[in-house]
Design brief:
mainly alpha, Rhopdopsin 7-helix transmembrane proteins, disordered N terminus, transmembrane helix
Length: 317
């Protein structure tokens, strides 16, 4: 107890962090990465922005599914904007430091948007369940007011959960350096730099991630189990194919997001390292937000048609 107290007392106050990220890469590699990530970021912003525009303005997409999809794209834009612009700046500058407050703010926004997206994906699964299994009562069950409430619930849950996770991550002073082996302030890495007992904080993060990920997963699995039972009971093979196609897009997004989140926040810290963390961080901070609109648009004829009308090129077939 006394050594721990002495360590806390002797720890210097950290006022900034250094995001190591791709600092050790060669100038040519950083230039290549800057070009690649700028292109991916621009593509993600453009495609998600287009989905927001068409789902909120095209009267043919005036349904709960596209209402949720528009908000999913908005969350994706928020998510990539909290991390990627800063990474792009650090790829072309020598100063990779961020202030203590900036690090806290970035981490909070990542938690808020990430948790809200997990909850929203569960509500989207419930929407598909009602649409497929209770089509006659769909308009009454999933009304416009209900859609707004569900979206607000996902945001509120993300805000409250973000406050809790922020407190867990920054509750101890820092005495193990200020170099973060990633391109943004990721909670497990920040916690590993703190004094006291980082393992206790990591256990709380693990428990929180378990609740945040598996609670929505229960709703998703239950919804799709009932959808599958409904599909298999149908005689029409064409109806089955159309339903499977509609659900496949959502399931693909769920698998990508949940898998990367589980690896980042539910794996023992001893199995992590910069070479393993950065690829998964890139996956859920830029690759998934870029792929979401592609997955939904290419597998949905209504989205293709709406995009074609928005771009002034007629229907895409």
């Amino acid at each position: 107890m006394q050594p721990q107290t002495a360590a806390l007392r002797n720890s210097s106050t950290v006022t900034e962090f250094v995001l190591v990220g791709f600092e050790q890469s060669s100038p040519s590699t950083r230039a290549l990465l800057f070009t690649l990530f700028l292109a991916l970021y621009s593509l993600a912003m453009a495609m998600n922005g287009l989905i927001i525009f068409i789902t909120w303005t095209d009267p043919r997409l005036n349904s709960p599914m596209y209402f949720f999809l528009g908000h999913l794209s908005f969350l994706d834009i928020c998510f990539i904007t909290t991390t990627i612009p800063q990474m792009l700046i650090h790829l072309v500058t020598k100063n990779h430091t961020v202030s203590f407050v900036s690090c806290m703010t970035q981490m909070y926004l990542v938690f808020l948007v990430g948790v809200a997206e997990c909850i929203l994906l569960a509500f989207m699964a419930y929407d598909r369940y009602v649409a497929i299994c209770h089509p006659l009562n769909y308009a009454q069950i999933v009304s416009r007011q209900m859609c707004v409430r569900l979206v607000l619930t996902s945001w509120i849950f993300g805000m409250v959960n973000g406050i809790f996770l922020e407190y867990i991550s920054f509750r101890n002073p820092f005495c193990k350096g200020n170099h973060i082996e990633n391109f943004f302030c990721e909670a497990p890495i920040v916690i590993s730099l703190s004094c006291g007992d980082p393992q206790f904080s990591m256990k709380l993060i693990f428990i929180d991630a378990f609740v945040v990920l598996f609670s929505p997963m229960v709703l998703i699995v239950t919804s799709y189990a009932r959808i599958l039972a409904s599909i298999l009971s149908r005689a029409s093979s064409s109806g089955r194919g159309k339903t499977f196609s509609t659900c496949a897009s959502h399931l693909t997004v769920v698998i990508f997001l949940y898998t990367s989140a589980m690896f980042s926040y539910m794996n023992p810290r001893s199995t992590h390292g910069p070479d393993k963390d950065k690829p998964f961080s890139l996956l859920y901070t830029i690759i998934i937000p870029m792929c979401n609109p592609i997955i939904y648009s290419f597998r949905n004829k209504e989205m293709k048609g709406a995009m074609g009308r928005a771009l002034g090129r007629g229907n895409l077939v």
